[in-house]
Amino acid sequence: MKRAPKPILVRTGQIDFLKVNADTWEWRDVYQRLLALSWSRFSACIIGLYLGLNLVFAAAYAFGGACVYGMMPGSYLDGFFFSVQTLATVGYGHMYPQTLYGNIVTTIEIMTGVFLFAVITGLIFVRFSRPAARILFSNSIVIAPFNGKPNLMLRVGNPRASTLVEAEFRVMFSRDEPVAEEEEGFRHFYSLKLAFDRLSSFPAALTLRHLIDEDSPLFGVTPEALEAASATFMASIVGIETVIPASIQAQKSYSWRDVLFGERFVDMYTPEGTGKLTVDFGRLHETAPFPPTSDPE
To answer: What is 136-289's CATH topology?
Structure first.
């Protein structure tokens, strides 16, 4: 009887997808999964693998009796430390294989160590060398008038010390809509047209805007309508890092709960009068009612 493949859990935005009967695992997936781990889990895996191999070979040396010169026959502790030296190809010289069995085990361990350290070095190099996006997205989306017309707006920021070039911006909108063949509705996806969706240089922060007119899928939208349709938004940025020329990407999802009606983002920029602009990233998420309320006298 064929064994059923293990379910795969993938989180995208606000939704968790549990993939069943997806028999797509390959041995090369281990490399991808190790790259996707956090540094703490990656370090734990490497340390665990290293200790595990040494424990296995220590047992092999202890089983071989007097197979290693300078090692007490059957000593698991001596076998462990000899394995550490052999796996790293250090070879201090105080202990060395003196039988055919010991030479065979040592040869296998040296080959394993060469392969293991080559893979680990490659993994560490890739983890250090790949650029991190570090793109900031506002915590909420706002819908308010801009230039006299309703707009959907969200803010993005680049807090890095370098400029992102050839940046592309996208905002996807999805909601449940009734169709003739379905009783419970069907999920529809829309790519919202932005006032601008590409910049040759993205140095600091900006607000992405979508005009809500008759051609927009958001025309006439209300908070109640977004909730009833389980609406979600997905904002994404793709660009090129200039320090290490490489493509980076970042994304953030929003639910209908994150949409604020009648709010505007507060200004982040302050002119210095010397050709400089101060950008306060502490205000990236701040919003204010629109139109502004006047303070009572």
So the answer is: Immunoglobulin-like (2.60.40)
